[in-house]
Design a protein that fits this description.
single chain; alpha/beta; Metallo-beta-lactamase, Chain A; eight-stranded mixed sheet; seven-stranded mixed sheet; 17 strands; 29% strand; globular; binds zinc ion
């Protein structure tokens, strides 16, 4: 499994002279796995980083479908969708999945954001090659990807029953061994809106990646959050602020600190931790200082902590 970070800025896309190392585009990741059908690209969020990701997919030339998993619908996680070329290329099937918040799911997000006077086109112009899937109960839902079967959404209970009894799972036209699948599990984060953290388990390789953006420091760690992160080979967490800023000014905004992400990762047995959702107000030196604070919070010398940059590919 490979994870490419196309957008790692939080809250607002930013371009300035003292912010050239760390992210300028807002959240967008691509997950690459041999468990995905040929021609399928899997993305998380469509911040402004969705645009450079799309351009790279078009250069690859063999993409027929893009599945985008939304964590939530704040503007910094949706805006890239409006101007990414695949949104207008009818031969590319665009599927949007995401939470339901105040009756708004991925379909309503597209309809709301893509219409005049906010945008020159109405969503009806593009909808013929879009499909949508709501995730009503993230913690009780599993997504299954198989290279031949495609994708399936199912209840966690049913997945666990099949896993225990048969180890086979119906996806698309056939039944396949769970050991051949990419399994995506979910949990709600601590954020003002209904927001999902995704856990990707690539069963053939045993590799796991957890993405926890737009999540605020919590007092204590719930068993559900611990289980969600446990055993991850790569953990990317929201570290928008340093601890003094958080305590003085930004507690309650729904974002975390680097030292919290380190403590959380280590508590869950993760040794490979990356920080994301960088504050638009931070220059590169400030992000390096947040990284240093995160490194100081390590209790194990073998733990490695990095700060995400845009357009970087991480081997899980
Ligand atoms: Zn955000
Ligand atoms: Zn947010």
């Amino acid at each position: 499994m490979k994870v490419t970070t196309y957008g790692t800025a939080g809250s607002l896309a930013i371009c300035r002279a003292n912010r050239t190392v760390h992210g300028g585009n807002t959240t967008c990741l691509r997950i690459q796995s041999d468990c995905l059908q040929p021609g399928l690209a899997l993305a998380v969020d469509a911040g402004t980083g969705y645009y450079p990701m799309s351009m790279e997919l078009l250069r690859e030339g063999n993409i027929s479908k893009i599945i985008t998993l939304f964590t939530h619908y704040h503007h910094d996680h949706t805006q890239g969708l409006l101007l990414a070329p695949p949104t207008y290329i009818k031969s590319i099937h665009m599927e949007l999945l995401g939470p339901v918040d105040q009756t708004v799911g991925p379909k309503e997000v597209l309809e709301t954001l893509m219409k005049p006077p906010f945008h020159p086109l109405d969503s009806v112009e593009v909808k013929s090659h879009f499909s949508f899937m709501k995730i009503d109960h993230p913690a009780g839902t599993v997504l299954v990807f198989h290279p031949e079967g495609g994708k399936k959404k199912m209840e966690l209970d049913e997945f666990q029953r099949l896993e225990k009894k048969w180890n086979l799972i119906p996806v698309g036209e056939g039944k396949y061994p769970i050991a051949e699948c990419l399994i995506v599990k979910m949990i709600k984060t601590a954020h003002p809106e209904h927001t999902i953290s995704y856990r990707f388990e690539e069963r053939p390789t045993g590799k796991t990646f957890v993405f926890l953006t737009d999540h605020e420091n919590t007092d204590g760690i719930s068993n559900a959050l611990r289980d969600h992160i446990s055993g991850a080979d790569l953990f990317i967490g929201d570290a928008q602020y340093d601890r003094p800023t958080y305590e003085a000014r930004t507690a309650g905004y729904g974002h975390g600190t680097g030292e919290y992400v380190t403590r959380l990762g280590e508590y869950c047995g993760v040794g490979h931790i990356w920080l994301t959702h960088h504050d638009p107000n931070a220059d590169d030196a400030k992000i390096d200082a947040i990284l240093a604070e995160a490194n100081d919070a390590r209790t194990r010398s073998e733990t490695v902590v990095f700060a995400c940059k845009d357009m970087e590919t991480i081997e899980v």
